[in-house]
Design a protein that fits this description.
Elements (H helix, E strand, L loop, with lengths): L1 H19 L8 E3 L2 E6 L5 E8 L9 E7 L3 H11 L3 E3 L5 E5 H4 L9 H5 L8 E5 L3 H5 L9 H14 L8 H9 L6 E7 L3 E9 L5 E5 L1 H10 L8 E5 L14 E18 L2 E17 L8 H25 L7 H8 L1 H7 L3 H6 L2 E12 L5
Parallel strand pairs: 1-5, 2-6, 6-7, 7-8, 13-14
Antiparallel strand pairs: 2-3, 3-4, 8-9, 9-10, 11-12, 12-13
Length: 371
C-alpha cells in the first residue's frame, strides 16, 4: 500500500501546485531577456528591457524599450502598456547596471523586487556598463547572435578562461550581505563593439570604487582560488632589454596548466597576517626574445618576480580602496574567529592595515613544440 499512497500524494502535489500558478499561453507573453538599470543626467531612474519577437511578420527579431520609472516593479505596468504580450522576467539572462547607478552607495535597494519575485532567475548575469546602458541595450550586432545570448556568452566564455568573475544575482546577494567579502562584477563597454573591460570593484555598501583590467582580473581569481582550467598570461620581462624598437622583444606569454594556491591566516601583534603560497606549472606559448638570452632557471625566476610584483600591486590597490574582493575576511572568520568577530563590522578598515604576503613558485614545464 505504501507505494500507492506515495504515488497518490505525489499526484495531489502536482495538481495542487500547478493550479496555483497562472497558465498564460506563450503567444500572450513578452519574454524579457535583458533588464537594464541606469540614471540619466538628472538622476532619473531609467529602466530598459530587451525582448525577442516571435512574430514571423515582424521586421526585427528583437524589441527594446526604455522609460523613466521610480522602481523596477513600477516599470512593469508601463512595459505592459507598450508590448504585445504580458511581460515576464522569468527568463532574464542579463542584468545591466550603469556605472552612474553604482556610484551611489544606496543603489542595491533597487533590486528588492528581483529577489522577492520567485520567478526571477537568480542565475542572471550581473554586468556593469561603463557608460550609458542605452549604448549597449540598443546595439544590434549584424554578425552576432541576439544581444542577450551574445552578452551571456561573452561573460561565460571569459569566466571559463579566468578573465572575469562569475557575477550572478545570487553571488551578488551573498557578497553584499557577507561581511567577509566585498562585491565584484563583470564590466563591459561599448566602443565600436561591445567588449569586456575587466571587473568592477565595489565597497561594502555596493558603491563603485575601482576597475580591474582583464589581466588583473585573472590575478584576482587566482587569489580567490576560483581560476578555471584555461588561463593565459602575457607580460614583459623587464630584466630583458628589448633594445627599443616596435616589436616588444621582451614579451612573454604562457599557459598556466596547474595552480596550487594556499593561504594561511594568523593574528599576531594586533594585526592580521595572510601568507599566500602560489605554485604554478606553466608552458611558454609565445616568446619574442631569443632563446639563448636566458636559461630555463633564469626565466622561471623572472616570471616569479614579475608575477609577485603584479600580485603585490593588486593587493595594494585593494587595501588602498578599503575593499575585500578576495574574501580574506572569510579566511579570518574561519581560522581566527575570536579576533575577527571584534572587527567584523569594520573588516575592510582592518584589512587595509593587515599584512598580506605572496610568494610565487614557477615550474616551467615546456618551452613549446619547436626551439
Amino acid at each position: 500500500m505504501k507505494p500507492i499512497c506515495h504515488a497518490m500524494f505525489f499526484i495531489f502535489l502536482v495538481v495542487t501546485l500547478s493550479s496555483c500558478g497562472r497558465n498564460i499561453p506563450l503567444e500572450d507573453l513578452t519574454i524579457s531577456l535583458i533588464l537594464g538599470i541606469d540614471l540619466d543626467d538628472k538622476n532619473n531612474l531609467i529602466i530598459s528591457e530587451s525582448n525577442p519577437v516571435f512574430n514571423k511578420d515582424a521586421k526585427k527579431n528583437i524589441e527594446t524599450y526604455q522609460l523613466k520609472s521610480k522602481s523596477i516593479r513600477e516599470s512593469r505596468k508601463y512595459f505592459d502598456a507598450l508590448t504585445t504580450g504580458e511581460v515576464t522576467a522569468a527568463k532574464i539572462q542579463v542584468l545591466l547596471i550603469g556605472k552612474r547607478v553604482l556610484e551611489h552607495e544606496d543603489w542595491f535597494s533597487i533590486l528588492d523586487t528581483v529577489y522577492r519575485n520567485p520567478t526571477f532567475s537568480i542565475n542572471s548575469r550581473v554586468i556593469m556598463v561603463d557608460g550609458p546602458v542605452s549604448d549597449v541595450i540598443l546595439y544590434e550586432p549584424p554578425d552576432k547572435p541576439q544581444l542577450p545570448l551574445h552578452l551571456k556568452e561573452v561573460i561565460d566564455k571569459n569566466n571559463e578562461r579566468t578573465r572575469t568573475v562569475n557575477s550572478t544575482l545570487q553571488v551578488l546577494h551573498r557578497q553584499m550581505y557577507d561581511k567577509g567579502i566585498t562585491p565584484s562584477i563583470s564590466a563591459i563597454k561599448k566602443e565600436k563593439d561591445i567588449e569586456l573591460v575587466g571587473v568592477s570593484l565595489l565597497d561594502d555598501n555596493g558603491k563603485y570604487v575601482d576597475n580591474l583590467s582583464i589581466q588583473e582580473s585573472s590575478l584576482l581569481l587566482i587569489l580567490k582560488d576560483e581560476q578555471n582550467k584555461e588561463l593565459t598570461l602575457s607580460m614583459p620581462m623587464p630584466a630583458i632589454n628589448d633594445k627599443g624598437g616596435i616589436f616588444n622583444k621582451n614579451e612573454l606569454s604562457f599557459d598556466v596548466s596547474r595552480i596550487n594556491s594556499k593561504v594561511k591566516a594568523k593574528y599576531d601583534k594586533d594585526q592580521f597576517h595572510f601568507n599566500y603560497k602560489i605554485h604554478m606549472a606553466v608552458n611558454v606559448v609565445e616568446r619574442l626574445f631569443p632563446a639563448d638570452m636566458v636559461t630555463k632557471n633564469e626565466l622561471e625566476k623572472m616570471i616569479e618576480k614579475e608575477l609577485k610584483s603584479r600580485f603585490e600591486g593588486l593587493i595594494k590597490k585593494i587595501q588602498e580602496n578599503k575593499i575585500d574582493p578576495i574574501g580574506l575576511g572569510l579566511y579570518a572568520r574561519a581560522y581566527q574567529y575570536e579576533h575577527y568577530k571584534k572587527v567584523k563590522d569594520h573588516w575592510v578598515d582592518t584589512l587595509a592595515k593587515s599584512n598580506i604576503n605572496v610568494s610565487v613558485d614557477i615550474d616551467l614545464q615546456s618551452m613549446g613544440a619547436m626551439k
